[in-house]
Design a protein that fits this description.
The chain is built from two helices and five strands, in the order βββββαα. It has 100 residues and is an alpha+beta fold. The chain has one domain (5-99). The strands form two sheets. A three-stranded antiparallel sheet has the order 1-2-3, with helices on one face. The chain has a two-stranded antiparallel ribbon with strand order 4-5. A hairpin with a 4-residue loop joins β4 (48-49) and β5 (54-55). α1 packs across α2. The protein starts with a strand and ends with a helix. The mean pLDDT is 90.
Length: 100
């Protein structure tokens, strides 16, 4: 069964945001249905590249931060391929639960 599947890393500012670091969330979309979870990491909004979904820069801490996001993305894609091979139902919630 073919599914439309996408991932997005984005910043989610709290309602009472005054400044400082903001949590990074992961949104998994399967066939138009979304599921969101936090990555457990935070960053400054000025350092975030929303198009790439990664931090800007070439310093070592930025590279390791982006490598962590790449690892999360890889885990979701691996879970998707495992569910596809098992021919089980693929939903945004099942992919999120497998990641957690």
């Amino acid at each position: 069964m073919k599914t439309n599947f996408s991932l997005l890393f984005y910043l989610k500012k709290p309602k009472n945001y005054q400044g400082g670091q903001v949590p990074i969330y992961l949104r998994i979309t399967v066939n138009g249905k979304r599921s969101e979870t936090t990555t457990g990491r935070e960053c400054e909004p000025s350092q975030w590249n929303s198009i790439a979904g990664r931090l800007k820069g070439t310093k070592e801490d930025t590279k390791s931060f982006n490598a962590y996001l790449d690892t999360l993305q890889k885990q979701v894609y691996e879970s998707h391929s495992q569910l596809t091979e098992a021919k089980s139902s693929i939903t945004a919630e099942t992919l999120r639960d497998r990641l957690l």
